Amino acid sequence: MGKQGVGIVRVTVWVPELGDNRLDWAPCAALPSPLGEERITTCDDIAAILRTQGALVARLLRPGRYDGFRLYARTLTRAELVGGAEWYVSPETGAYLRCPGAEWSACDYGQHDHHLGDGPTVGNIRLAA
User: Fold this and answer.
1) CA-CA distance, 10 to 39, in Å (whole number)?
2) Are 54 and 14 in contact (CB under 8 A)?
């Protein structure tokens, strides 16, 4: 459990570029960018947002069009990267699945207040502006 406070993260979807070099990722043109802006109060919220938004994207994208996708969560005010997740297409089912261990947040690395934005603070807690 991280520090309490309120912040907003912006979620975007990136897909592998079609072509020979699969290491290139670009914003997904088939979906709005950003996909959404989510209010968070704890570090656990980032993981929950990545899971639920990932499931939504998995339903919206046609399997076969992309081999997978990545979600990135960034702070609204400073665009700092505070979380991410990767999904791939299952060769058995053709459905998108979360990559095991590929969901992370800055909180995992001790950066508990980055997701709270630039609002005023009380002690170590940032409040919504």
Assistant:
1) 9
2) no
* Contact (CB, 8 A) for 14 and 29: no
| Whether 96 contacts 58, CB under 8 Å | yes
Nearest to 2 by CA among 79, 82, 77: 82
User: Measured between alpha carbons, how far is 125 from 49 in angstroms, rounded to an integer?
Assistant: 21
What's this model's pTM, rounded to 2 decimal places? 0.76
Task: Please write the tens of the pLDDT for every residue from 78-122.
Answer: 888 889 999 999 989 889 999 888 888 877 766 655 545 444 443
Residue 63 phi, psi dihedral angles, 5° rounding: -60, 145
| Three-state secondary-structure class, residue 14 | strand
Q: How far apart are CA 100 and CA 87, in angstroms?
A: 9
Contact at 8 Å (CB) between 50 and 85?
yes
Instruction: Give the C-alpha separation, 106 to 44, whole Å.
Output: 11
CA distance 70 to 57: 10
